[in-house]
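hiii, so i know i said id send this last week but things got crazy w the move. better late than never?? heres the sequnce for the chain we talked about at the cafe, plus the structure i predicted for it. fair warning i was half asleep when i ran it
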Amino acid sequence: MLEARLRGIQPDIARLYNNGNPGELMPDGQPSGIFVELGQTADKPFERKVNGLLSHNAIFFGQPLCDCHESDIYNLTFCKKTHYHQITYEDMCHRAHVPTWQALHQPEPRKWSFTCDCCGEVRAYVSEVHGEGIGTAYVGPPNPPPRTRLSAQTFSTENGGKEKLINEQARINKLSPDDREKELKKHADKHKSQKFNCPPLIPCHHYLWDPMHAVHNELNVILDEVSAGPGVGGRRRGGGRQDCGGARTRVLARTAAAADDH
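okay and structure toks below
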């Protein structure tokens, strides 16, 4: 429904997006010499929906502002001035496996290519060891990363072209409703909440935030843990509800203090 409502203005929005460059305002179709960049900000539920993401309860809670998994948001140490500028419109299109020209309703170019940064094979890092007496000694690099990306999947005219994307959609469409839902959820979990074949409806140069929402992003996850995590078992015992309420009060007070510091 939202896509249908936007259909009449999408060509103008795409023109102003100008393939990631500032677009020129053209009142009555006349050049103005004024160039603008588009920014998007909204409440999290709408922002997630309009950008083709799972609901804000998904594990990649920071999208479309950052790539953080929910477990990375607990520490409240991110710099609010620099952290939330990680995602681009093109990133979300590619994670949906949709070329940007298609998302922008443009004609297919003679040659095109894009890479999905989430499709690459990812493995846990395995250190190299050699025998030394009765034990082993680590000989890999110091502090190895826990996970290492080996490659990324590229879609292009030389690598299956649009037909490759059509075949992927056809494969999913042939699944039973239950299996299709599981497959789509699997894609979204692997692609940081981006749903398959659901690019952002509105192209933007910038995805904006304000200090209140930057703090709330982190606070909501913490309070979910307080109320639905350790507190669940506590509520079954006498005084558990009071313990949970007290924790919530302390979290709110500390968050207010942290916001004042910033």
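btw The chain has one domain: 2-228. thought thatd interest u
miss u guys!!
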